[in-house]
Amino acid sequence: MSRTKGSSPDSDPRLASSSSGRMLLTCIKAQLGNKTVAFGRTSSHPDRGAITASARSPTVKQAIVARADLGMGPGKLAAQAAHASLSVYEDTDDRTRREWKGSGQTKVVLKTSGEDAVFRLADEAERRGLPYAVVRDAGRTQVDPGTVTALAVGPGPEAEVDAVTGDLSLY
């Protein structure tokens, strides 16, 4: 939402003329008091409506580790990260999934090189009792069939996920 410099959200004529604009503005104002920012639709039902992202440090997070040595294009990288994230999410317990979703679904994409590095990280996640998923590509586009492309660790306790992936660089 853009505003003219010096105007307040309450006096912005574009919002005043739009009932949906007022609804979103009301939602944002209510959420800012709790240090969260609202995106999307609004609802009074706790499981529906505004999607929030917490301004506080997350307690539950997910790390997605992609192989930088494969030279995947940006679309391929995004697809492999999505495969990893969704695969591990489906194997995560309900309580952790709810906590992660409620705290903004914090995730970070990191890089590593080589299949061995991916499996070392997966082994460490397993030792710590964290959910994880290793992605092997079908080989229809940029890499050979069966190539290990990515790993997702968590959602899980931030400190535990960081203990596994904290030495890696951002992708």
Descriptive notes:
The protein is α+β, with helices and mostly antiparallel strands and about 170 residues long. It has 2 domains: about 45 residues, no CATH class; about 110 residues, Bit1 (3-Layer(aba) Sandwich). The protein has 6 helices and 7 strands, in the order ααβββααβαββαβ. It has a 5-stranded mixed β-sheet with strand order 5-6-3-4-7, with helices on both faces. Strands 1-2 form a two-stranded antiparallel ribbon. The longest helix has 17 residues. The N terminus is likely disordered.
Measured between the Cα atoms of the first and last residue, the distance is: 29 Å
Radius of gyration: 20 Å
Number of separate strands: 7
Strand content: 15-25%
Strand order of the largest sheet: 5-6-3-4-7
Helix and strand content put the structural class at: alpha+beta
By CATH, the topology of the largest domain is Bit1
Q: Structurally, how many domains make up the residues?
A: 2
The CATH architecture designation of the largest domain is: 3-Layer(aba) Sandwich
Biggest β-sheet strands, sense, barrel: 5 strands, mixed
- Discrete helix count: 6
Uncertain segments: 1-55
